[in-house]
C-alpha cells in the first residue's frame, strides 16, 4: 500500500471527484430548506459528531432559516489511522447541553456500518429528548450492518474510500471543498 505524504497535495492520491463543490452546495441548500420547514418554531439542537461532521455542520447551519443551537460530541469508531470500523464506538467527548425535552438533530458526515450512530442514538434516547433525528451527508448504504433511521440524507454513495469535505485520509484533506475517491494503491 502506498503511504500518504501529508505535506504533498491531495492530487497524488485522488482517483476522481465523486461529488463536486457545486453538487454539495445545491444539495445542502435543499436539506436546509427541508429542515427549516420541519423544525419551524422548535429551535432544534444540531448535534454534530466530530470530527468529520464539522464541515457539513457549518454549511448546513448557514442554510437554515430557523433559529437553532449547536453542540458537539466526539465518538471514536475507527481510531486515528485505522481504516476499518472496530464495531465498538467510544464516546470521547459527550454533549454539554441538557437534551431532555429538546428537538435534537444529529449531524454526521457519513454512515457506513451504522455502529457509530446506533451507539449515539441509543445513548441520547435515554436522556429523553422531545425528538431525535439523523441528518447525514453521505450514506454508504451497501455497507450497513445496523439499521439506522435517516431523516435527512445528502447522497447515497458506492462502497469506495472517500475523503474531503470533513472526511480525512490519515487525518489530512478534510478541508477539500469536494468529495473525492482515494486511489486504490493508497487504500
Ligand atoms: C467516521 C464517520 C462516522 C463513522 C461512520 O468517523 O465520521 O462517525 O466513521 O462509520 P460507521 O457507520 O461504520 O460507524 P471516524 O471514526 O473516521 O472519525 P472522524 O469523524 O473523526 O474522522
Short description:
The protein has 187 residues and is of the alpha/beta class.
Protein architecture, described:
It is a single chain. With 187 residues, the chain is of the alpha/beta class. It has helices at 21-38, 54-62, 115-125; strands at 14-19, 45-50, 69-76, 90-93, 103-111, 131-139, 152-156, 162-163, 179-182. The strands form two sheets. It has a six-stranded mixed sheet with strand order 4-3-2-5-6-7, sandwiched between helices. The longest helix is centred in the N-terminal third of the chain and has 18 residues, at 21-38. Bound molecules: 1-O-pyrophosphono-5-O-phosphono-alpha-D-ribofuranose (PRP). 1-O-pyrophosphono-5-O-phosphono-alpha-D-ribofuranose (PRP) binds at residues 49-52, 75-78, 85, 108-116, 168.
Q: Which of globular, elongated, flat, extended, rod-shaped describes the shape?
A: globular
Gap from first CA to last CA: 7 Å
Low-pLDDT parts are none
Share of β-strand residues? 25-35%
Rg calc? 16 Å
Number of strands: 9
Compounds present? 1-O-pyrophosphono-5-O-phosphono-alpha-D-ribofuranose
Count of discrete alpha- or pi-helical segments spanning 4 or more residues: 3
Assembly state of the chains shown? single chain
Q: What is the strand arrangement across the widest sheet?
A: 4-3-2-5-6-7
- How would you spell out the order of helices and strands? EHEHEEEHEEEE
Structural class: alpha/beta
**Arithmetic mean of pLDDT:** 94
Helix content, binned percent: 10-25%
The largest pleated sheet is described as:
6 strands, mixed
